[in-house]
Design brief:
Strand content: under 5%
Structural class: mainly alpha
Number of helices: 6
Order of helices and strands: HHHHHH
Radius of gyration: 33 Å
Shape: elongated
Largest sheet: none
Length: 135
């Protein structure tokens, strides 16, 4: 007996709009998140991606996430024009710049240091202090 809807049986296919999948890839969504968006399993996304595009989801994702990264970079540059903290972030992360603090002594000269040599008596006193003995 023929089926009324002329389908060979099984569940009906979940409609997956690959323009929507492309947008989600641009937002760096994971395969799990995309499957959740369409209320299906990760396996369904992988299988339908092969059917519709002829490539695996990983290849499809890699191809379409690039446009999202470009948009993010564009936004970072735009933000850096108005927010000095963003400009500092970009300078440190992309240009390798860093904030270095130099310590100077009196009058801007080098810091004078003294080397103190401990005598055997000083060492014995420190050991007694550490062990809790009284001098």
């Amino acid at each position: 007996m023929a089926r009324p809807n002329k389908i060979n049986g099984g569940r009906p296919k979940i409609p997956i709009d690959f323009r929507e999948v492309e947008k989600l890839c641009r937002l760096q969504c994971t395969e799990q998140e995309i499957a959740g968006w369409f209320h299906c399993s990760v396996d369904t996304i992988e299988r339908r991606c092969r059917e519709e595009t002829g490539v695996t989801f990983a290849e499809y994702f890699t191809k379409h996430r690039v446009t999202g990264k470009i948009a993010l970079r564009r936004n970072l540059f735009r933000l850096s024009e108005k927010h000095p903290s963003m400009a500092i972030f970009l300078a440190k992360n992309w240009l390798g710049m860093s904030e270095r603090q130099e310590l100077t002594g009196a009058g801007g000269g080098p810091i004078q240091t003294k080397i103190i040599v401990a005598t055997p008596e000083d060492k014995a006193n420190m050991e007694r202090t550490i062990s809790g003995e009284r001098t």
